[in-house]
Please model this.
Amino acid sequence: MTTLRSSQLGWYARRLARMSPAEVPWRARDQVLRLAWSRRQVRPGQVAAAAPRPAGEHRFAATLPPGTAARVPEEARKAILDSADRLLGGEWEVLGVFRTDLIRPDWFLDPVTGRRSAPDQYAFRVDHRSEEHVGNVKQVWEISRLQHLTLLATAWFLSQEQAYAERVADQLRSWWRENPFLSGVHWTSGIELGVRLISLVWIRRLLDDWPGARDLFERDPLAAQQIRWHQQYLATFRSRGSSANNHVIAEAAGQLVASCAFPWFTESERWRRNSARLLERELIRNTFPSGIGRELASDYQCFVAELGLLAAVEAGASGHPVSAGTWQRLCAMVDSAAALVDERLRPPRQGDSDEGRALLLDAPKANRWPSLLALGETLFGRLSWWPRVPADAASVIIGAVPGARHDLAGRPSDRPWRFADAGTTILRTTGEHVPEIWCRCDGGPHGFLSIAAHAHADALSVEVRYAGQDVLADPGTYCYHGERAWRSYFRSTIAHNTAELSGQNQSAEGGPFLWLRHAQAREIDVTYDGRVAGWTAEHDGYSSLDPPARHHRSVRLDRAARTIDIVDQIDGGSYDIRLAFHLGPDIDAELTGSCALLRWPGASAPAGTARLELPAQLDWSLVKGETEPILGWYSAGLGRRTPAFTLLGQGRSAPRVPLRTRLAFYDQAYASIPAVDVAAMSSTAPASMGTSVNDPSRSS
Model:
């Protein structure tokens, strides 16, 4: 084993401190098993004993009805075949990296750093967190989720072109040979095994009419071994306690899908029962009753919903349906997703995002939420207030699985705008007030479980869009591993549209996926009448300062005037304060004193102009693309960052003295922008900040 550095020892100590007393024995048990399982490792090139089989021939019964391929929309079909043809030429984009080596991929090579991990190293001795040893592990893991092969299998399903199926078979056999049980980095994380099993099930389903499908799966002893090894691993090692976030959902979903579709082993029935119970329990724990994910990381809400839906559909097709309560929660997740998106079907950018997909059947797109809504419409039916989304290959094909459709009662009759259990509120213009102004307000807890692995220090932050264009933007994630300073920045308070006091984060960071102290926010008042939508909240993240501080924020959207007022107040004492407003990457800004003129072109959304009146008590500067210190950046996804303007105000706060900001939207002509009467801006929350009698959020 590699000698631990002092920094690693410190991390382990901090991590241990975030575990409950009940979790520690489980962790110790896992370590003992990992040590004992070293005897079970199968090294590349070794011939392992044949996997135990039940009597009779393996069968795959969960096939798709005839005519399913013909129902896939032509636009989706064309995009799939175009992507598949590029894949045949070796071209594929992986988390922001364009690759040309996918004809015969090296399963262990990181294309970013050029490092190659050892294929024969015992999995539980591989330090997958170390870029020095494995490179950027997200890049390495992503290809081995085998989702590029599910796309090729879909292309075969739609076209019957032999080349697609043959490439799938070649690469599957390569992966199975080069990644035997417990050898290498692809056996180090259960979430990877769970997602990989889902891919294998769907590859087999899509290739069912291909003459080589049975030779590739049922009749290949190595294929059967791999499917069994994956399930043995997941049945023994799973995420627990402070780590039981989206990882445990993926582990349970993968096990349930595989045990239903490949019921080939003596343990299959036990694996199915146990994984179904685990999925149902953890899905409820990982989500609020409203359907919002408890990690409060928008991207993971979509990922968890996809995992849960795939597992529930598979279980139903096998004759072992999940509970009505599980279907109800999955439906709530989809309904809340429909309520959260802006007019361009873009979700919030809250918390971490790694662009994880549960299954890839369509050509890859940056925004997966329209596909989730299309699947939700197929499975549950579209509500009258839902945005309209086109059907895609995934919604047609998954929806064709027997028993997939569910009609559920108790769904919201009006579009929810407030999700009180999650502390998430969407203020938006509606009806005659177009283009849409969309504003997300964050007044909830700091992530999920004691480590809040995918949370950001963003309490009371706002995110504002005009016709789907990022104006006041959440900067995103950029990286998980390797670049520690960048990881810390994108999670920090100063990287979000909120206030930083005394140079500190609201929540205390203990590592790339570890928070030691959590700021807790709470909503105080909300209103949502015909003209005005308002929100007030506070958080306690600076209670450790001397004297303790509390940050209050009110946000008020005047639909008719097309203005957003933000009023910040710091109670407790006088502190060094930095107030940041981060602009989207397409926004140009000119700053004069405490007033900024914002303009953006009309490429993907209507061109626009806005005026941002900033608190005059602070000294304001315009920053873009700085690295010492890091400030002024936007990340569209993992591995991608773009310089973007940040308006940074610095000074001293005064007790109970409000800091007033107004964002006013105008048409494109600069001459039409009137002077803003700053003195007329409200210094406190509007008197009508109580919850409206007709508050549709009460149904959520």
